[in-house]
Amino acid sequence: KRAGREPDTAELAQLRDQVKAAYEEQTDVRYAAARLWIDAIIQPVETRNLLVQLVAISKRYDSGAPFRTGVYQV
To answer: Less Cβ crowding at N or C end of the chain, within 10 Å?
Structure first.
């Protein structure tokens, strides 16, 4: 429409298919993992055990040492 003409049904269908394919590709967990956006991919049956481990880690004793983040490399 910006070019001053009305798109036909075939063009709209092709555009819709392209957008749908890109959306499905980019919402796949492997897409995020390949870009290091996530730390791990776990199976659904592993969720409970992993959460128990993470809660146990978060409840560890704090020795009072100052928090140091180290060097962040970009």
So the answer is: C
* CB-based contacts of 15, cutoff 8 Å, min separation 6: 7
Following DSSP, what letter does each residue of 9-65 receive, concatenated?
HHHHHHHHHHHHHHHHHHTSHHHHHHTT-SS----GGGHHHHHHHHHHHHTPPP--P
User: Per this entry, what is the length of the chain?
Assistant: 74
Nearest-angstrom CA–CA distance, 2 and 42: 45
Distance set, CA 17 to CA 7, 12, 21, 31, 58 (Å): 15, 9, 6, 19, 45
71 vs 32 pLDDT, higher one: 32
Dmax (CA) of the chain = 70
